[in-house]
Each structure stands twice: as C-alpha cells, then as structure tokens.
Amino acid sequence: MSNTNMIIKKRMFNDAYYTYLKTYDKRFEIYYGGAGSGKSVFVTQKLLFKYLSMPGRKCLVVRKVNATLKDSVFALFKTILSQWQIADECKINKTDLTIELPNGSSFLFKGMDDPEKIKSIANIDDIWVEEATELQIEDFDQLGLRLRSKKPYNQIFVSFNPVSKDNWVFKRWFKDGYNMGNTMVLHTTYEDNKFLPKEYIEALMEYKKNNPIYFSIYALGEFATLDRLVYTNWKVSEQPFDHKQILKEKPNRFAIFGTDFGYTNDYTTLICSIIDEAEKKIWIYDEHFEKHMTNEDIYNMYVEHRVAGERIICDSSEPKSIEELKRYGCKHIEGAVKGKDSIMNGVQLIQQYQIIVHPDCKMIQEELRNYTFIKDKQTNEYINKPIDKYNHGLDAFRYSVMNHIGVVTGKVILYRRSILF
Q1: Of 25, 60, 193, 318, which sits most exposed with the smallest number of CB within 10 A?
Q2: CB neighbour list of residue 182: distance below 8 Å, 6 or more residues apart
Q3: Is 358 helix (H, G, I), strand (E, B) or coil?
C-alpha cells in the first residue's frame, strides 16, 4: 500500500461487496442490480484500493457519452478520495477528466461517443464500463481489444442496471450462463446498501405499492424493459390464490382459456384466466409454454391442466390443428376471430382491466415485463404497434379475452364447465 494518509476500515464497505475487495483473479467482474444498490460506489472503491496497492497502473473508465462522465463516475472518484483523506495528494484534472494517484497509478475517463480517441489510448491495465447497457456489443468488444497489458491482474469491470433481455449484456452473461473460470457476477439491491437514507428506501417502496413493474426494474434490479411497455396494468399477487374460490365468489366471473400455436422457434402456449367484467379484473392462474409439441401433445397437455373440455380460443391461422384437437376430444375449441387492427383492439381492451398474475406463472410475467411498442428507427418515437416478441402467451391471453368480451357483448351465455369447481 502506498504511503499516504489514507484511512480505510471495513465498516466503509457494504458487506455484500467486501468479500471481493482484494480479489483480482477474474478477467471480468460483472456488477448488476437495482438502483441504490451501491455497485458503482464499490467498483470505485475497489479500483482505488487496487491502484493504491499497485503503482504505475492505468485504468480506462468509460460510459457511452462523454458528457455524462464528469457528474457521475468522475465525481464519485473524487468523493471516495476525499472520504479516504487522500484527495489532496492526487492530481485531479477536471478539464481532461484524469486522476493520478500519489504512486503514479492513474485513471482516464472517456466516452464511447468518440471511439477514435479510445483506440489511441495505449498501455491500459484495467477497464471499467459503467452503465454498460448504454453501449453496443461492438463498443464493448473494441474495449476488450485495448486490454493487452503485460502487467498482472488485467480486469474489465462491468456495472449496470438490468434492462430488456434483448440487450447484449443479457445475451453475453445471462442467457446461456457464463464462464465461471474467468468471470464473476454479483447481483445486489437496495437491501445490500446499508448507507441508503431512509427517504430513498421509502421512495422505492412507493414504487412497490403503485408501480410493481418499475419496482422490479429499479429496486430489485430484474431484467425487464425500460422501453414503453404495452401492459403496465398488472401485478404479481403477493400470495398464491385459489382460482376456484375466485370463480365461485361472484356469478359474473368466468373462466377463459387461450392458446397460441408454435413449434420449432416459438412456444405453444396455454393461458388460463378468470375474468370479472363488472370489476374490470382478470386473474391469470395457470400457464403452459413448450416447443416441439404435436397436436397429440397439446391435447394431453390440456388434459393435464384440466381444460380439455373447456372453450379454448386458439390462433385461427392453424385450422388443421384446431380440427385435429376437436377429433381428439376438445369439442369446444375454436379459432380466434381476427381482422384489421385486431391486435391493437385487443391490447386496448385488455389495458382497461387490472391483471393479477399468480406468482407461479413465471413465463407470462417475463412476457409482460418485456412486451413493448415498436420504436421507429428514424424518428426514435414509439408507434402504436407492439413488437413481435415476448407475446406467445400474451397472444393466447388476448384471444381468450377478446372472445369472451365478444360473447358477452353478443348476449351469448359463455360455456363454462363444472370441471373447474
């Protein structure tokens, strides 16, 4: 350790991070989670601790846009140096955004919006990519090419708040796992940060009560899109519920069922719900998502979920499958009525309801968190059309709701078998 007036004690660190303060054996260290989890503070602390212990190193700290650096990570470094009482011993250049420690180790802060300047930087020993989801995967790969120092313990630190599973960080480290030999991944939330003020935690709890989707994104740090979601009128029930009891409580509640067909690349789905038209509530209580299903498999799945004899509304683009399922014994299965703007009509209809999802229905929750409107690439504005992703269960759900409302509007008694009771 350099001979400075530095005062460092264990209580200055959050317990969830302290274990990793002196570990440098992994090339990649991935820190992700909710807002206020303390991940950026810890990466700053770790880098300063490492660099004060190892003279003559050079670290590149990057964000996507250069203008965001001064008031974010650069300011964070200055704060930690002041807390450790060594800021006066460092050379801090606020114009060039550089910091040199007393032992000659240094930090350079650069934006990826000027990639040519990044390419000209030589002899980099470590890199920190803050808010990594802002970058493109090509940006990140280019950074990796810069890290070819002959000094030991070269590392790339990556920190971010999770966003959509379409983002490259999910595909790189979470979709199919990661190489544990060269990568460390740590997920943290506000609960891991003992330094958070009470008012901040109270503000997060307001999200939990009023906007569960934002709570899962910002507080819990779960992978969920920050784009314009199609459905924000839903929540996961805090406790498992009995759909049979909900159905029995009032006579105007009906069981509805929908299926979307898939095979190789897409799921075949079943979504089971209870709808209350008067209260504008829908409870999603059961689901099935599976690929490579034959029609016989689908029928057996219906039997397993106790819905083979129910009115099931399916994707009408596969009349052959519907007919074959009828011959297997699904006498009340039928295709969804489609027409011009049927998707948006269904979306706008469902947006009028409060949707309560059973906590065991994980796949439909994932779709609800990631089903967004399309953003026009030229104008960067959202258009009134959902993406054709994260919608296999939601399409099945939409078929069932639209059919039910159509039946109710037409004053036809909805077929409901006693098998559910």
Answers
A1: 25
A2: 26, 27, 28
A3: coil
